[in-house]
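Researcher: Re-running this chain for the archive, since the previous output was lost when a drive failed. Same request as before.
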Amino acid sequence: MNNNDSTILRCEKLSKSYKDGKIDVQVFDEVNLSVQSSERIAIVGPSGAGKSTLLHLLGGLDQPTTGKVWIDGVDINAQSERNKSQLRNRSLGFVYQFHHLLPEFNALENVAMPLLIGNTPPKLAAEKARHMLDQVGLSHRTLHRLGELSGGERQRVAIARALVNNPLCVLADEPTGNLDNHTAGQVMELLFDLNDRLKTSVVIVTHDLSLAAQMDRTLTMINARLQQN
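Model: Regenerated structure tokens:
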């Protein structure tokens, strides 16, 4: 792959299809995308167009039918499952509409989880998780479990978890879709502030056009293609 220093995530001729009975259903076809360091990108389009599927492929959570994905210059789908997991853990952070936090753990433990998975010593993992929670304004909630946190606080914990490894890129799937307008605005303001300070790229799938308008680029998934707006 011909990769320059500022390209941290790239896909080339990426396609995804599946079988519905005897019919081949094309989700999208020959998508090309390059994400630069600290860039903010929104992906919009109608429901069912394949936006979330594309995000999963970019994150190595699903296999493409054809095409390749490189993360930090590494072809992720050419790696063993172990190496793929390590690359994801080191280079990417994930934020979902429904935070996917673990309810049996407190905020600090949830944020520390990616570090522990990456074999960071527990004491250091706790220190880094505490610092990240402070960055998202939750230093007073470190020992609270999910049932004691508001929706906005849970999403801030999810953002802290996504950023605790200082990843190259955060992939966010409708991160404000489950929040009221005021809380959604606060969450995105926080994410943009961390993007500025930590220089982490952000790729967001969203139906919120006002949110998309705040990004560096907006791409539309329509008719199985990814189009530049």
